[in-house]
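Incident log, structure service

09:12 report received: a user says their structure output differs between two submissions of the same chain.
09:20 pulled the input from the user's history:
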Amino acid sequence: MTHVNVTINGRQYRMACEEGQETRLLRLADSLESRVTNLRGKFGEIGDARLTVMAALMVADELVDANQQIRALQEELMALRDVRVVAADRARATQTAVAAALNAAAERIEKTTQILNRTIGGGVAIG
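09:34 re-ran on a clean worker, output below:
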């Protein structure tokens, strides 16, 4: 564990974090400090605890909105995956049908060629 000093609402706090997470913790603290500063600019001195709670509620509100958006995107992704599976199944069915049609056409052409060869009676072979 590492320790980092952060400043929130003008007060310093010594925070513990995992190795390598120091920069992230400092950025998070700066973000919260920025929110507190903005709220102080809007509402004036309304008490340290109140400013901190209001900033925390703003962060919580953004988190709820982000989670809702993530859920909506996950649902959309699942729907798109379902559509992709249906489209792939249709493509395979279409390929199978086209192959069957081409094979049937080739067989008809072969039979027609054989009939024409017999009809010509030993003349020039077709095909």
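09:41 both user submissions now match this output. Likely a transient worker issue. Closing.
09:42 reviewer note: The longest helix spans residues 48-120. The chain has one domain: 2-120.
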